[in-house]
Amino acid sequence: MPLPPLYPPSRVPALNRRQLLAAGAGLGLASALPHLHAQTGWPSKSIRFVVPFAPGGSSEIIARSTAAELSKNLGHNVYVDNKPGAAGNIAMSEVARADDQHTVILGHIGTLAVNPYIFPKLPYDPNKDFRPVSLLAKVPSLYVVHPDFPAKNLREFVAYVRANPGKFSYGSAGNGSAGHLAFEYLKATANLYMLHVPYKGTGPMMTDLLSGRLDAASVGASALLPFIKSGKLRCIATGSTQRLAQLPDVPTVAEQGFAGFEMTQWYGMLAPATLQAAHVERLAAECQKAVRAPDALKRLQGDAADPMGGTPAEFARFIAAEQARWKQVLLRAQVKPD
Question: Is there a contact between 154 and 236 (Cβ–Cβ < 8 Å)?
Fold first, then answer.
C-alpha cells in the first residue's frame, strides 16, 4: 500500500519588525526576539502539557524532553500532566474544552488517526476542537518474533505464515493500539492471515511473547531494544524508512520486498481551538528548537525516536494524510475498541 507523499515544507513570508511585533509572534523569528514575551504578555503563567497515557515509554520521554526545553525559552514552566484512560479519549475531551490559553496536549497516531474510525462516537472532534502546533517525533515500530519461531527475517516470516495460514498469533497492547495497527498494516500489505490476541497493555503482552505463548508482535523500538540485544527476541524488520543505528543489521520492511512501507508511532503538540493563532505559531517555533536541542536529542535518540518539528500547517497536513491512510486499514481489519 503506497504511503501519502511527504508534505512540502511551507514558506514563511518575510516580515519587517513592525509587522512582527503587531502579530505577536512570527514562526522561526520568535527566538530572535527575547523580549517578545513582554510584548505579547503570553504565556502569563505555567503551561500544562497533558499526556493522554500513563507515565513511561516514548510518550513520556518525548513530552518531558520537549517541556524541559520549552520551559527554558518561554519564560514560564511547562509541566507534564499524565491523564490516561479510554484510549486517550478522556484527556483529549478535557483539553478540547480548556479555555485558559495555557493548556496543550500530546497528540498521537491513536487519538488523531485511529480513534475517529473505531469508536462510534467520540467526546471530541480531532479536526475541529484542536489547533495542530507541531509534529515532535516519530518512533519506529519493530517487528519481532520469539527466538523459537522458524524465521530469521521478514521474507522468511511471510513465506512461513502464508504456508500456514491461521496457525500463528501476534499480540498487541489492545484493540486499536499502535502495535495492533502496525501488524494489521503488515498483514494487509503482505497478504497474511494471523490471529490477533489483544492484551490490556504492553506489559502482559510482552510477558507472553517472551515466554513463547505468542509468536510475534510489533512494538515501539524503546520497549524492545533491550530484549533484542539480549537475544530474548528476534527483530525481523523495522518499520522505519531507514535502518536504525541501534540495529544496523536489521533491514526495513521496505528493503524486504514491500516498497514504500513505513510504520511509525508519531507524537505532536496540539492546542485547543480557542488558543490564539499567534500563540500557536510561537509554540511551533519553540517546539522546533526544543526537539533539536542537545539535551533533547540525546534523550530522543536514546529512545530510537526521530526528532521532527515543523509548522502548524505542516502538522495539519500530516494528520490529514495519516487519517486517510489508517481509515482504509481500520475498515479493512474491522478493528473495534476493547
Answer: yes
- Provide the β-strand partners of residue 170: 196, 216
Q: Give the separation between CA 113 and CA 121, rounded to whole angstroms.
A: 14
Cell matching residue 127: 479536526
In the block, residue with C-alpha cell 518474533: 145
Q: What is the 3-state secondary structure (H, E, C) of the chain?
A: CCCCCCCCCCCCCCCCHHHHHHHCCCCCCHHHCCCHHHHHCCCCCCEEEEECCCCCHHHHHHHHHHHHHHHHHHCCCEEEEECCCHHHHHHHHHHHCCCCCCEEEEEEHHHHHHHHHHCCCCCCCCCCCEEEEEEEEEEEEEEEECCCCCCCCHHHHHHHHHHCCCCCEEEECCCCCHHHHHHHHHHHHHCCCCEEEECCCHHHHHHHHHHCCCCEEEEEHHHHHHHHHCCCCEEEEECCCCCCCCCCCCCECHHHCCCCCCCEEEEEEEEECCCCHHHHHHHHHHHHHHCCCHHHHHHHHHCCCEECCCCHHHHHHHHHHHHHHHHHHHHHHCCCCC
Cβ-contact 155, 255 below 8 angstroms: no
Per-residue pLDDT tens, the chain, 338 aa: give them.
444 433 333 333 444 434 433 434 433 433 444 444 444 589 999 999 999 988 877 888 899 999 999 999 998 999 999 998 888 899 999 999 999 999 999 999 999 999 999 898 999 999 999 999 999 999 999 999 999 999 999 999 999 999 999 999 999 988 888 888 899 999 999 999 999 999 888 889 999 999 999 999 998 888 888 999 999 999 999 999 999 999 999 999 999 999 999 999 999 999 999 999 999 999 999 999 999 999 999 888 887 889 999 999 999 999 999 999 889 888 877 877 76
Q: Are 154 and 143 in contact (CB under 8 A)?
A: yes
The one-letter amino acid code at 158 reads: V
The conformational region for residue 75 under phi > 0 = left, psi -120 to 50 = alpha, else beta, is: left
Give backbone dihedrals phi and psi of 217, rounded to 5 degrees, phi first: -170, 165
